[in-house]
UniProtKB/TrEMBL annotation:
Entry keyword set: ATP-binding, Nucleotide-binding, Transport
Organism of derivation: Arcticibacter tournemirensis
Cleavable signal peptide: none
SUPFAM superfamilies to which the protein is assigned, alphabetical: P-loop containing nucleoside triphosphate hydrolases
Protein's UniProt name: ABC transporter ATP-binding protein
InterPro entries: AAA+_ATPase, ABC_SmlMolc_Importer, ABC_transporter-like_ATP-bd, ABC_transporter-like_CS, P-loop_NTPase
Length: 330
């Protein structure tokens, strides 16, 4: 992993009027030039954490370091926020009655008008919004506004781009495109991107590093594939995979008990064998999901969710052999 550009050491921030909220004793590092995704449920402290990182809010205790120097809070600066960092807030913060071009160009100085124009078009092209230059922001779709907000953030050449829930306003097709653009931007411009999202799937496909936040605390961090395949806690497994959670008795019934209290079995780790009597389950329900079928199974009170990607369709009441390819224990 690349060197850390930002480091948080034991950072806490508790809201006066809401003592149970905020973030507690967060220590983490953000690798330079890569995409870090902070994932957690709504209210877990993601927006608070972004504000603390960029200096828009001061911690009660602990330190935030940018390139080994302290990030100053809003009390100590004329314009709040670290100069090298730009945030795209959840509400985009656009001048909605101004044209797209002016929204973006307005952040550059007028000393060299030709350069200003060139740079603005460069950024608009990069984000594929150059054809919208003359439109007013208010007349754009949510996804287009999102891109204008990102263009505004990167036009001044920040080293760190912070994005608060960047996908909340876009539908799933645009979401994939925007994910790819954020990755491209980070790679091409060398920007360090920090993105927070309540949807863990955003992190899986986009992050170089993923951080799981719960109730204001960092639970674990790592490469998305490591967190997915070898989660350190049940919360992460559930957040990333909607897995089967089995008690020790359930695990005994399935012959995978090794002494731990809880066993997580991802749906894709449940292997269905039509012509095999390994462990016989009954199909309780099937749901068509497009390219796969979700199959709910039961055996002596143990319920399992499995997926079937084959051409064969299961039917309710059918008996099916099951073997567990993998499981993780906690
Ligand atoms: P997230 O972005 O993950 O949804 P936030 O950082 O916005 O979470 O909020 C974390 C917790 O802090 C929530 O319980 C929220 O209600 C509370 N909170 C956020 N901002 C304030 C504030 N200005 N005053 C009091 N409580 C706040
Ligand atoms: Mg938030």
């Amino acid at each position: 992993m690349n060197n850390a550009i930002i480091e948080l050491q034991e950072v806490s921030k508790i809201y006066q009027n809401n003592p149970l909220a905020g973030v507690q004793s967060v220590s983490l590092s953000i690798p330079e030039g890569l995409v870090t995704v902070i994932s957690g449920e709504s209210g877990s402290g993601k927006s608070t954490l972004l504000k603390l990182i960029s200096g828009l809010m001061s911690p009660d205790s602990g330190v935030v370091l940018y390139k080994n120097g302290p990030v100053m809070g809003p009390e100590s600066r004329l314009i709040p926020g670290h100069d090298a960092m730009k945030t795209v807030a959840q509400d985009f913060n656009l001048n909605i009655y101004a044209r797209v071009y002016d929204n973006i160009a307005g952040l550059l100085s007028n000393t060299n008008l030709k350069e200003k124009q060139q740079k603005t078009f460069e950024v608009m092209e990069f984000l594929k919004i150059d054809h919208l230059a003359q439109k007013r922001a208010v007349d754009l779709s949510g996804g287009e506004q999102q891109r204008v907000a990102i263009a505004r953030a990167i036009i001044t050449g920040p080293e760190v781009l912070l994005l608060d829930e960047p996908f909340s306003q876009v539908d799933s097709i645009l979401k994939n495109e925007l994910r790819a653009d954020i990755k491209r931007m980070s790679r091409y411009l060398g920007i360090t991107a920090i993105l927070v999202s309540h949807d863990p799937l955003d992190g899986l496909s986009l992050a170089d590093k993923m951080i799981v936040l719960k109730d204001g605390e960092v639970l674990e961090e790592g490469a998305p594939s490591d967190l997915y395949n070898a989660p350190g806690c049940l919360y992460t497994a559930q957040l990333l995979s909607n897995c089967n959670v089995l008690s020790s008795e359930d695990a005994r019934e399935l012959d995978i008990y090794t002494g731990k209290d809880t066993v997580a079995v991802y749906a894709e780790w449940v292997r269905l064998n039509r012509n095999d009597d390994s462990l016989t389950f009954t199909v309780k329900d099937c749901f068509f999901k497009g390219f796969y079928e979700e199959v709910l199974l039961e055996r002596n009170g143990v319920k399992l969710r499995a997926i079937n990607t084959g051409n064969f369709r299961y039917v309710k009441g059918q008996e099916v052999g099951v073997s567990i390819d993998r499981f993780v224990e906690f």
